[in-house]
Each structure stands twice: as C-alpha cells, then as structure tokens.
Amino acid sequence: MSDALPLRHKAPDHLNSTGCSIRYSEGKGRGVFASRKIDAQTVVEISPVLLFTKDEYDAHGRHTALDHYTFKWPNGRMALALGLGSLFNHSDHPNVTYTLDTHTDSIRYTTTRPIQPDEELCIFYGHKLWFENAEGVSTLLTPASDLAEDDGMGGLSGISAEEEENEEDMFAFPDGDPSDAIDEADLPFERLKLFEDPEEEAVEQVRTTKVWIVDLPEPRQTNTMLKWLKETSLDSPLLSHLKRVRKTPSPSSATSLLLLPYHDSCPPPSLPSLDPPLPQPYLADVPKTAALTLSSCKVKSSLWPTVYAPRRKGEAEVWERGRVRWACEAMRRVARTAKEAKDSGELPIVAYVPIPYSSAREESTPDHGLTRECIAHDTRKSLGHPLKHAVINAIRAVADYRASTSSEVSTTPAEFAQGELPATATDALTPDPLAIDQTDVETDKSRNGIRYLLTSLTLFTTHEPCIMCSMALLHSRVKEVLYLYPMEKTGGCGGATCLPRLEGVNHRFGIGVWKNFGGKDGMGIGGDVDA
Ligand SMILES: C[S@@+](CC[C@H](N)C(=O)[O-])C[C@H]1O[C@@H](n2cnc3c(N)ncnc32)[C@H](O)[C@@H]1O
Predict the structure, then answer these.
(1) Where is each SET domain found (predicted)?
(2) Separation of 2 CA from ligand 1 center, angstroms?
C-alpha cells in the first residue's frame, strides 16, 4: 500500500523465472514489473493462497491491512495470495488477467498482450476501488462514485471464487501451444453462416441473373468494346465473378461480350457505332456467383465462362489456440463487467473492443487504430436515454479514446478492403446510398466519422446487438462480433434478423454465438433482457 510503504524502501529482489520483479510504482506502492519482454498469453505467476475461515476473517482479518489484499473464496472464506500474487496493482487497462483455482487453492496470472521490459504488470480489481487510482479517473465506465453501495466485497474480491468456478466452465480453454489450429467443432462459439453455399453441380441448380450481352461481328472489336465499357463506367463489379468475353469455338467462331447487369426493365444499352455495326444486345441468364468447385465451374461455364474461386474471401478463418484463449479472456471480462453493471443498477449488458489478437502477439503488425481496449455498459437506465445501448457506448468509447490521443486512425484502404465484401460474393449487391466513400476516407482522415471505424476489430458483448446496434456495427465496419446471449425478439445478428446477411448491405461482419450459453445464467447477468 502506497501510504505504508514510502518510496525510499528498497524492493526485495525476487527470483521469478517468468521475468517478473518487484519495484515501486508511482503512487501505488510496490508493484510487479517485467524485467524482460514477456509474450502475450504467458502464465507469469501461480500463487498458492492462504485461507481464512469466515469467522476468523470477520473477527480479525477484515479490520487489518489484509482486507486490501484478500479474495473471496467459497464457503465465506477469504484467501490471501502468496508469492507475487498480492502485489499486482490495479489498472483500468490491465495487461494481466487472473483466474481463481479452487481445486489447487491457487490463483493464476496470465498476460493479455506482449509486455515490454520495465512495464508494470497490473490486474483489474473492479470498479469499486477503495483508494485513489494513481492512474486517474476511469472514463470508460460509470465512475465508482456513481455505483451502488459497496456490496461487502473487500479488497481484491471483485469476483468471488464461486462465481469464478462458474466462469471456469464458461470461459476456460485448454492450455497448449498458442499456434495450434483449433477445429471448428472445438471453438467455444459457433459461427453463424452468412451465406448458404448451395451445391450448384447441375445446370438446374445454378442460381442465375440476367445480363445484357452483345455478339461481336469481328473478334478484333473486343478490345475496343472493353475500353468503351471502362470509359463509360458500365464495367460493373457485380459481374466480376464472370469472364467478360465468351468465345464460341468453330464452326460459328463467335465472340460475345458481357455488357451489364439487367435491372427492372431497363432498356438495352446504346452501343458505340463500329464498323461493321454491332447487332442489338440481348438478355441472357448467367451464373449469379463464382464456382466453388471444379465440377460446378464446368456446369456454370456452360452458361457463361465463370471464375473458379474455391475459397471465399471472408470465409471463416482458422483460429489458433492463442486467439481462442484471447477471446475467452475477453468474454470473461465482458461477463464480469456486466455483473458489476448489474450490481450498480444498470442493465447487465456490456460491449468490449479489445486490442486485436494479431497485434497483441506481433508487435510489428499495425495497431488497427486501437492501442487501448475500450469497454462500455448499457446506460439507458442511469441516463434515461433510450439509445445508450452498450454497443453504441462502446463504439463511442473507441472514438473518444482516439480523439483523446494525438494518433489518428491508421486504417489504410488496404485494411478497409480486408473487411469488405468477399471478392466473389456478388449476390445482387446494390450500392448503399449510406456507404462511406473510401476515396474520401483515404484523402480526408479528419472527416467526421472516421474515429468510429472498427475495421479489423472484434467486438465482444453479453447480448446479441439489437437491430439499431447491428446497423451501427455495420457502418463501423467491425470485423466480427461475438456474443453470449441470443436475442430472439430484438437481435440484429441472427435473432429477429441478421443484418450482415441482407442483400444490399455494403459490409458484412462475422458473427459468433458463445456455445451453450443461451438460457444459462451462471454469471447472474441475465439472459432475459431482450430489449
Ligand atoms: C493488493 S495491494 C497491491 C500491492 C501494494 N501496492 C503494496 O505495495 O503492497 C492493493 C493496494 O495497492 C495500492 N494500489 C493498487 N493499485 C493502485 C492504483 N492503481 N493506484 C493507487 N494505489 C494502488 C492500494 O493501496 C491498494 O490498497
């Protein structure tokens, strides 16, 4: 504790093979520091605990300095972490997470991102701090002073071991090599399929769309016409899954050119005058999407030469163990914060945007415009504002954080492209009048709205985002959304509807639903909110 331990005291040397040492931390007393670089997802400490019975603690411990160090344990007991465990200070932006293990009576501390030499390792105590935070006041959540009266938890006991035991089942994922590829079936969440990929292996199964075509009397007119298409901007990207030209072999040896998609009774395009003159364009049915298999490519190409694209861009990517554990920790944080929000009288709905796993691991990768995590809970109740949903608040928190730092969003056009539509997903998408013009994004980063972009970022939330929030997420260009509770009546990510599945939207994001969570209420955060 900072008062009791003046800075002139020398911190003891501490032998810890994971690279931790004890030093003094400005305004906080002793703390745990990295003596060298430490990777993300590293277990830096396993502290055995010393247990006190409820009676013993109530009679003595509670009235001593112990109360600033102890964790709640089952059966009313309190636990003091030995080793380094009691020396982790608090941060609103922790770089270490901890789990209580009631089977081995120990607490396990794991880094959530790479740690630089000399950086302090901090955990998150909760929102009801009993001391003045040397880091300043948190701007991410309701200030502690606005929270309900303390619920009797002392010191570090933001989460009791009973709750922790429940959490263990929900957010645990086996240890192992972080680079292991995890089977889809073993992921703790289920990914919603945005598109059915129907088998299109026979002509009658091929989904088609109407296009205008013209037969060229002379093959040498092909280049002239391709140039003309470009110049007139008729070269629609909606046809990028099809080859532009079809050459019919002898005896007819004809060359046909795809002109443009047919829309509600639009007239045939007027063509340039060439010598010899071009005939009238005609309508024909061509495949609506690229071919996913070689046999379907053959079938589709019998209608019109079709691009073979075995794997769709944006298709579910393989997750590594390290990333799954990162997601589990993020979801644990979401659930804990929701519990705290509930205790403070709010709806237990929380949304969280952590630093992406890729940049948490490889420091050289771009920061995707977010160098610090942002978390927010629903504030509809406290603010009496019907639009203050957790997701909207979290997007706002990201924008506010960016605004508060000098660095601007580092989103490049290439990164935009990552979050964009699959190259071959040309399922009759029409331009969205609300679409963000990427040229503007590139040329005018200071333009209003840029700070709200969640391109390449993952949002974790307790409850499926409602339709309003799902639309906000769509505009934010979020990469993916993972949630615990499906919202059948109001959800916009698979419940009442699924916005990223709708035709005509100009961005799609991945959706993952935590397995076996719907209906469960082990955390006491309630799956019954559907508003
Ligand atoms: C579990 S102890 C941490 C180790 C403690 N610094 C020590 O020297 O023994 C908790 C105490 O550390 C101090 N502390 C932890 N985090 C702090 C922070 N962010 N700002 C100020 N003091 C902090 C508070 O005095 C708190 O009661």
Answers:
(1) 18-126
(2) 6
Do residues 12 and 20 make contact, with C-beta atoms less than 8 angstroms apart?
A: no
| pLDDT greater at residue 103 or residue 24 | 24
- Which atom of ligand 1 is nearest to 91's Cα? 19
Nearest CA to ligand 1 atom 5: 1
> From the CB of residue 167, how many other CB atoms can be counted at a distance below 10 Å?
22
What's the CA-to-centroid distance between 94 and ligand 1, angstroms? 14
Residue nearest to atom 7 of ligand 1 (CA): 1
Query: Looking at the domain 188-195+316-420+432-514, which fold is it?
Result: Cytidine Deaminase; domain 2 (3.40.140)
Residue 94 near ligand 1, beta carbon < 6 Å: no
ipTM over 0.90: yes
Domains of the chain by residue range? 20-138, 188-195+316-420+432-514, 203-301
Task: Name the superfamily (CATH) of residues 20-138.
Answer: SET domain (2.170.270.10)
> Using one digit for the tens of pLDDT, what is the confidence trace for 283-319?
999 998 888 888 889 999 999 999 887 765 555 678 9
DSSP 135-176: T---SSS--GGGSPSP-S--TTTTS-HHHHHHHHHHH----S
pLDDT digits (tens, 9 = 90+) for 449-475: 688 899 889 999 999 999 999 999 999
